[in-house]
Every structure is written in C-alpha cells, then in structure tokens.
Amino acid sequence: MKQLRIGQLLVIEQENGDSIYAQVENLHTDWHKDIRELNMPSAVPTKPALMQKLFIEQEILLKAVKVNRSGNLLAMRSIPLPGEAVRFASDDDIGQIYGPKDAEHIYIGEPLEMTSPVVMNVKKFVERSNGIFGKSGTGKSFLARIILSELIRSQKVATLIFDMHSEYGWESMSEQGHIKGLRQLFPQQVLIFTLDEDSSKGRGVQPDHVLKIAPEMITIDDIAILAEELDLSQAMLDAMEIIHKKEGKYWLRRISTLDPMDIRTQAEFYGVVEGSLQALYRKLNRIMSLPFLKEGEDTLSTLFMALESAKTIVLEFGHYNNLVSYMLVSNLITRHLHSRYVKATEKFINSRNIADKPVPLMIVVEEAHKFLQGRVARNTTFGTIAREMRKYSVTLLIIDQRPSSIDREVLSQLGTRIVAMLNDPDDIDAVFTGVSDRGMLKNWLSTLDTKKQVLLLGHAIPIPTVVRVRDYNEDFYKSMITDTDKGVKELFG
Ligand SMILES: Nc1ncnc2c1ncn2[C@@H]1O[C@H](COP(=O)(O)OP(=O)(O)OP(=O)(O)O)[C@@H](O)[C@H]1O
Ligand SMILES: [Mg+2]
Which part of the chain is the Helicase HerA central domain (predicted)? Predict the structure, then answer.
C-alpha cells in the first residue's frame, strides 16, 4: 500500500466535480504512530471521511493548487473540506497538471513513485534566465544535457554553451563509461567551436571551427572582471584606465609591448605608479600569450552568425579551462552578443517585421558564481542579462555548486530553478531567494537523494515538484531521433 510522504501529489475531488491538485507540505516524523493511536490503517485511508480526519487531526498541511485548462494556478488551501475525497494522483492527473510530452515541453523525468512525465514549458523556460544548482556529483551536467537536447529538438531557441570541461559536444567519460555529446545526437543543429584544436583532436573530436579572437576586442572591463583571478590591485586597475584613455583601442598592445628595461620612463610618461605598471605589464603579457588571441584573425563573427540562425554552439576550452581563460572568453563573447541582440531587438521594435525578430538565445555557463558574485555581477554582461531578463531575447542557464556566492538580485530574477541536493545552509537559503513557501521547499529539498533527483520550481512549471530525473543513456539517445533526422545512421549504423 502507498505511504504518504512529503511532496506527494494528491487530488482533492470537490463536490462540484472539479479537482484540486495538492502536495503534502509537511509530515510529523512520527505520523505513523499517530495513525496507530487513532486506530487508522498504517497507510493512507481511502475513505474520504477518514482521510479528512487524518489531515485535520495530524495537522498535515497540503499545498493545494487548482490548475485550470490554461495551466493557471487558481486556488490554494490546506485541508480538504468534509465530503471531499482525497486520493493519490494518478498518471492521468500528472498529464493534466504539467502538460503533454511534445515539442513544446521539456521532458525532465517523473514524480517519485510514478511513471508519467513531468515536463516544463519550453516557451516559458527560454523567456527568463534559469539555474541548475546542486552539490558536485548530483547530476547537474547530465540534466543540462537532457534539457539542452530537448531545447534543440524544439527548434525554438539558439544555445551557446561555454563548455569549460569539454563535456557537452562530443563523447565524454562518466561513471557508466562513454556517453554521447550533443553534436553526436544532433549533427545538423550543433556546431563545435574550440579554443584548443589539439585538445579537441586528441579526443577524436572534429571541431567545426577553431575560435580565434583579436586582442583589440578585449576591453578594460574584460580585464577588470579578472581582478581576483589575476590579483590586480586598485592601483593597477587605475593605471590601466589612464593608459586606455591615452591609447584608445591599442591600450592592451601598448602595455604588453612596453620595454621591460624602461618601465620607469613609461610610468612617468603616463603619470602612473612604476610598480603598478611593472606588475600590469607582467600580468597582461600572460593574457597576450594565450594562443587563441590572434592579431587580425577573428572568427567570432562566424559564431555570431551561426547563433543568429538558431544553431547550438558548444565552445570547448580544451586545456584553456583555467578560470582566467574561461571568464575572459565567455564574458567577451557574451558582451558582444548582448550588444548585437540589443541592436537586433531595437530594429525589430521599429520595423515590426516578424522576419527581424531575433531567435531567442540561451547562454549556458558553468561555475556561474564566478561571473555573478556581488561586485562582479554588477560589471559583467552576465549580470546585466540576468537582471534585465527577457527584454532582448537573451537569457542564461547558470549551472553552479555554490549558489550562495551568486548575487542575490540575480538569484531573485531567475525564472525556473532546478535544485539537486545541497548541504550547506547558506546555499540552501540562497537557492530559494525571492521564492514563497521557502520552509516547505527546504523540507522537500532535504528529502532528495544524492543524485538524479531534483526539485523543480518557477516560471516553466505549474507547481513545485520533486522529480526523478530521466536517464541519459542509449534509450534517451534513441528518443531524440526524429524520422527526418539524418543522424540516425551515424549513431546506430
Ligand atoms: N540523468 C542521468 N542519467 C545517467 N547518469 C546520471 C544522470 N545524472 C547523474 N548521473 C550519474 O552521476 C554522475 C555525476 O553527474 P554529473 O557529472 O552530471 O554531476 P555534476 O552535478 O555535474 O557534478 P560537478 O558539479 O562535479 O560537475 C555521472 O557521471 C553519472 O554517472
Ligand atoms: Mg558538472
């Protein structure tokens, strides 16, 4: 017999024939004992009157929502009324609550102990910035692959994945052996760009493009957000500013090609502190020696155009997966993309021509707190995107183990949150920033397994739900193949 548990979906059948979907908000740890004292069967009583007695006498709270046909939440109450029957939700009810498994929805998994799918609304998902949070090893990257696959299949959004650990594009290793990357599942829609051709080829990946960035594209803001990683003092930042004012777009080349024997004269010339200029010279040379920075060679426009035609791009960092390279490149590309989308959106607003409407873009970023910490969040384009939401059709999917390090304003703007197990109380607090029912949700979060279980809440899902995440395996790959997909042969021979 089924047992009652926290987060369980129940249906309250009203006398007028309507149904209310409800979830168990709390349970005493010893509710079984209470039931015995009440002389009730150890599992949930099936008779309406007994069920109601149980809920009232045991103060079991239900969070109830009535979902109407358009998916809107209509009512909230806590205890069934006399005469209303309460039953466990069936698989049919699940479809009513979440919606169908189709191209308009992202199929994530199932509610615990049930077999029908929990789905999120694609349109609502891409409208706002979203977050996947959880400790290391809880399945964030696997879940991101599932969500991205479903988004690619929906063909409603372009995605750019800053793939720090080169795990999304092509085959990678997991505890279960080899797993496929997005390019293998969707050869027509996914392109792999790499910053490190040797590393990609060494792993048997044939990248579509090797990304080169002209150093002139780097602004002082791009360097300023690396202050912590490069250990730049305020005096160095000031010196950078002064030289930038004088030299314009050649500021970086100018500093990095100073004569090391003559820094004193140069410091006097610019009116900056010699020691700061010396240190700046050293640190910026470290940047300039990154092999993907190439004078006069700029393949960024290829990347921008691919995104504007609704492709998904995985940018592999290969061996340049240190935070300095990752943050420099991700922030620079995102800044340029954002300004392109702002222009494109303004053009569309003026022309009102649907052909001018930009394809929504979702940017996926791991270690997101590095870009979205309090001070940094105010200065990076990532922070701007997270705050201004969907205005310009660009949103973020942030993946992070340490939500407590992320700026609270950014967290409170997130549309949909997908939360796997977290232990740190600060992280748990942070992840529910700006959400009502925090007490209840914290309770639910504490019941999650160590992996492959998540709590979904927010814009793209009608009610917060604990989900058993579907497996990312051979069956998943097969389910992604559509009749028209030419990838079938490549994948399965
Ligand atoms: N949906 C899934 N299907 C199959 N295996 C999974 C799934 N989710 C998690 N796993 C297993 O759990 C392991 C850890 O998952 P994953 O790499 O996604 O964790 P993570 O949260 O991204 O960790 P980190 O923060 O360290 O990057 C995987 O190697 C895989 O074996
Ligand atoms: Mg991961």
Answer: 106-336
Range name among 59-68, 97-106, 175-184 with the lowest pLDDT average: 59-68
The CATH label, of 1.10.1040.10, 3.30.70.100, 1.25.10.10, 3.40.50.300, for the domain at 119-211+299-492 is 3.40.50.300
Distance 193 CA to ligand 2 centre (A): 20
Closest CA to 282 of 264, 262, 255, 248: 255
Instruction: Tell me: pLDDT of 28 over 70.
Output: no
Residue 142 has pLDDT above 70, yes or no: yes
Q: Is the CB of 138 under 6 A from ligand 1?
A: yes
pLDDT, mean of residues 197-207: 89
CA distance 302 to 316: 15
Find the 106 Cα to ligand 2 centroid distance in Å. 20
pLDDT at residue 338 above 80? yes
Ligand closest to 109 (CA) is: 1
Ramachandran category for residue 202: left, alpha or beta (phi over 0 → left; psi -120 to 50 → alpha):
alpha
Average pLDDT, the chain: 84
- Alpha-carbon distance 53 to 75, whole Å? 22
Amino acid (one-letter) located at 353:
N
Q: Best mutation site among 451, 454, 467, 475 for ligand 1, i.e. most ligand atoms within 8 A of its Cβ? A: 451
Residue to probe by mutation, ligand 1, list 132, 140, 142, 164, most atoms within 8 Å of CB: 142
Tokens in use for 243? 């030289």
Residue 358 DSSP label:
P
13 CA → ligand 2 middle, Å: 42
- Residue minimizing CA distance to atom 12 of ligand 1: 139
Taking the C-alpha atoms of residue 414 and residue 298, their distance in angstroms, rounded to an integer, is: 33
Minimum mean pLDDT range among 14-18, 257-261, 465-469: 14-18
Q: Write down the pLDDT at residue 329.
A: 94
Give the separation between CA 383 and CA 406, rounded to whole angstroms. 10
Residue type at 19 in one-letter notation: S
Q: Which residues contact 342 (CB under 8 A, 6 or more apart)?
A: 392
Three-class SS state of 169: coil
The ranges assigned to domains in the chain are 9-89, 119-211+299-492, 215-288
